[in-house]
TrEMBL record:
<feature type="region of interest" description="Disordered">
    <location>
        <begin position="1"/>
        <end position="25"/>
    </location>
</feature>
<feature type="domain" description="Phasin">
    <location>
        <begin position="37"/>
        <end position="111"/>
    </location>
</feature>
<dbReference type="InterPro" id="IPR018968">
    <property type="entry name" value="Phasin"/>
</dbReference>
<protein>
    <submittedName>
        <fullName>Phasin family protein</fullName>
    </submittedName>
</protein>
<dbReference type="Pfam" id="PF09361">
    <property type="entry name" value="Phasin_2"/>
</dbReference>
Amino acid sequence: MITRAQTKADKQTSGQAGAGGQSPMAGFTALPAGWFSTEAIEKLGDMGAEYMDFLAERIREDVRTQHAILHCKDPADLRKVQEDFLKTAADQYAAQAGRMTELTNAFMAALMLPRIDD
């Protein structure tokens, strides 16, 4: 007599083989062990936090600029506000690119850790 558990196990086993009896995962290599290291995950979180901080600061800068534009009295004031906005944005984006490069390098270094089982 075939039990329900045996039938379920047979279906799972037969579903693992694709056309020609080959597993659908054949040819795929496992991810490096570094992907699962605590250090790599922490570095990835640092990158995300840095990016979100940058976005928040840029939004604050946009709001400050809009406020300044609304209070301009003449075209010369408007031009000064726009020049300041563009200079600040260029400086912030350049600084952020450097910080993200440093964080990415740290993340990549964490991925290059030796395998745990080696």
